[in-house]
Specification:
The complex is a heterodimer of chains A (214) and B (412). By secondary structure, chain A is of the alpha/beta class. In chain A, helix 7 (152-163) crosses helix 10 (200-210). Chain A has helices spanning 10-22, 34-44, 62-73, 88-95, 113-124, 132-142, 152-163, 167-174, 178-191, 200-210, and strands spanning 2-6, 26-31, 48-52, 78-83, 102-106, 128-130. Chain A contains ten helices and six strands. Helix content of chain A is 52%, strand content 14%. With 412 residues, chain B is α+β, with helices and mostly antiparallel strands. The longest helix of chain B is centred in the middle third of the chain and has 55 residues, at 197-251. Chain B starts with a helix and ends with a strand. Chain B has a five-stranded mixed beta sheet with strand order 1-2-3-5-4, with helices on one face. Chain B is elongated. In chain B, strand 2 (347-354) and strand 3 form a beta hairpin. The chains are: A alpha/beta (214), B alpha+beta (412).
Chain lengths: 214, 412
């Protein structure tokens, strides 16, 4: 798979290139700002883009704006945003419109290479990856009304679902059986008036829709 | 009369003898006031009409206020050794100056007191001259032409004796008079030329508020600089290091198990260090606060709080950076307090702007009984609020709920 990386810190850029190449991605370009990112995407038509949020020249949300533009112009390109902190607006902006193949992780997560690669592969294949802190904040804003009807365990399951995890991954994470997870999910869908959906990212999007983000 | 009383009288008399230093100083002081008071007097006296004169004098005085005041202050400092405080720098600009009480008090001194003391000073000098002339009448009366009123008959008359006695009396009385006049002048100058106690205190309060705001801002800026340095330096390096270790852990094959164990441990340590450093940086000054404002930053701490938080932020504009930081840390500490002591199951947190005040209300459904007198956490909150002139209140009956209300100014 072809990837383009945008990260202004040389140290991290080199590290990301190494990690992506080590797990079988072809890094077509590694750039240091949003403008160069857009040029590289146009030139190389990558399957996935990994980009920092805060980049020159303004060091604010250049990466988010570039990501939104990429998703509008090249809907086939998956985008994984790396941010220094959680900002719900970024997640909300990113998840609105075309909704497959998006990810939003805290930058420091790249230190855990295995988790990062999992998330990246999920996103590249059209799935979703949201940082647990992003999910926690999204839940925070909306834990009123129907969400208050969820049991704490169902809330845990929902949070993991929102991160983009599969049933098996949720089961592993909570140390319960797959069937117990399925039961919880059905219960959540019922309580939240959502019809059960098949694909992993669909569930996430349904959840996020409900959270009034998407 | 006892001897000691007599001695005291003689001492005081010597202090005010015409030849004493005090007499010379007081008279000089009054005499120096004459050229400073006479102009206003002459403008008032010789202007065309009675109402026009004082008006012209007033306008001229106001125009030359600083010049006159400086001259008077110099006179008082040089000849009385007293430093009258100067004009306050806050009274800048004409409107502010015309509204300042000090301006009008100074005008009163220059227009009324100074001319009065100028006349008095003139009188003292003239009286002194006359006294000297009278006291020495025997020395010069014979020089007067015959038939002059000043030259009486044979010279040694009783009239001349009386004149001498009168002159001496005047000469000895004048030091007392000038001492008194100089004292009154000095008191008037002190009361009218410089700022009064209230104005001095106001100025002090303003100075203190300004310097404290500067200190708070400087501390805040310093924390931000350290945060920036850590982020650009150590944090990036640590993440890069952990990434390399993670990569080694994932891709290296054929490594001795114990060598791999070392890599794994190093990777785990590096990740732990990243988390610790991140928490440290968040405690210094979270980047999100600077970039995205209070709402976004508070969402972060509310989401990380161990107790469920319902967050309501209503801000139409961003408060100043320092106020944002103070508000952020107050909420952060308050939530930490709740987690530590309240045994609460939920927290309601609201931040709203009311005119130029930022109102933060944190309510938990815990056990209550929080006492700001004993709780160090609450004391910390109070201090943070006070550092920017904010208010802090706690209501925490036993059994709960506990409500902490903090109000901060939006601008420092």
């Amino acid at each position: 798979m072809r990837a383009v990386i945008a990260e202004d810190s040389v140290l991290l850029r080199v590290g990301l290139v190494k990690v992506l190449e080590a797990v079988g991605f072809e890094v077509a370009a590694a750039v240091g700002d949003a403008e160069a990112l857009l040029t590289a995407v146009e030139q190389h038509a990558p399957q996935v883009v990994v980009t920092d949020v805060r980049m020159p020249p303004g060091f604010t949300d250049e990466g988010v704006r570039a990501a939104l533009m990429i998703r509008r112009q090249w809907p086939q390109t998956a985008v994984l945003l790396l941010s220094q902190y959680v900002e719900e607006r970024y997640a909300a902006d990113l998840l609105s419109g075309n909704t497959s193949g998006v990810g939003y992780l805290l930058k420091e997560r790249v230190a855990n290479v295995d988790d990062f690669v999992d998330a990246l592969q999920r996103v590249a294949e059209g799935g979703t990856a949201l940082d647990p802190e992003v999910v926690a904040q999204l839940l925070l804003r909306r834990h009123r009304d129907p969400l208050e009807r969820l049991t704490p365990r169902e809330r845990d399951v929902l949070a993991l679902m929102a991160e983009g995890r599969s049933n098996t991954a949720v089961a592993e994470s909570l140390v319960i059986s797959d069937s117990a997870v399925a039961k919880h999910i059905n219960s959540i869908f019922t309580k939240l008036d959502l019809s059960p959906a098949d694909a992993t990212h669909r569930r996430v999007l349904a959840v996020l829709r409900f959270l009034e983000v998407g | 009369m006892s001897t000691s009383a007599l001695r005291r009288m003689l001492t005081r008399g010597a202090e005010h003898a015409p030849w004493s230093a005090a007499a010379r100083q007081d008279t000089l002081f009054l005499a120096a006031g004459v050229p400073l008071g006479l102009p206003a007097l002459s403008v008032m006296a010789f202007a065309p009409t009675a109402t026009f004169g004082p008006l012209v004098a007033l306008v001229l005085t106001l125009v030359c206020l600083d010049l006159l005041t400086t001259a008077q202050r110099t006179r008082i400092r040089r000849l009385r050794g007293l430093d009258v405080p100067g004009r306050l720098p806050v009274d800048a600009g004409w409107v502010a100056r015309l509204r300042a009480g000090l301006t009008w008090r100074q005008a009163v001194y220059h227009l009324l007191a100074a001319p009065l003391f100028a006349v008095a000073g003139l009188a003292v000098v003239l009286a002194g001259g006359a006294g000297l002339a009278m006291a020495t009448v025997y020395g010069w009366a014979f020089l007067m032409p015959h038939g002059s009123a000043l030259r009486s008959g044979a010279g040694w008359t009783s009239t001349d004796g009386l004149t001498t006695a009168g002159g001496l009396t005047v000469l000895f009385a004048i030091p007392w008079l000038s001492a008194w006049l100089a004292g009154v002048d000095e008191r008037a100058a002190r009361a009218l030329l410089g700022p009064n106690r209230t104005e001095l205190l106001e100025r002090r309060v303003e100075d203190l508020a300004e310097s404290r705001a500067g200190a708070v801002d400087a501390a805040d800026a310093e924390r931000r600089r350290i945060e920036r340095d850590l982020h650009d330096g150590a944090q990036q390096r640590l993440v890069s290091l952990a990434m390399n270790l993670g990569l080694a852990r994932r891709t290296l094959s054929g490594v001795q198990p114990d060598a791999m164990q070392v890599i794994v441990e190093a990777h785990v340590e590096a990740q732990a260090a990243i988390v610790e450093l991140r928490d440290l940086v968040r405690g210094l000054h979270p980047v999100i606060l600077e970039d995205r404002g209070l709402d976004a930053a508070l969402s972060g701490i509310a989401a990380r709080a161990p107790v469920p938080v319902r967050l309501q932020v209503d801000l139409s504009t961003r408060p100043s950076a320092t106020i944002e930081a103070v508000a952020y840390f107050i909420v952060s500490e308050a939530l930490a307090n709740v987690a530590k002591h309240a045994r609460a199951s939920r927290v309601d947190l609201s931040v709203e702007q009311q005119a130029d005040r930022l109102r933060i209300v944190i309510t938990d459904d815990g056990v209550g009984g929080a006492d700001p007198a004993t709780g160090t956490g609450l004391t910390g909150l109070r201090k943070r609020a006070a550092s920017v002139d904010g208010t802090f209140a706690v209501a925490s009956p036993l059994g709960g709920p506990t409500t902490v209300t903090v109000e901060l100014p939006c601008e420092l």
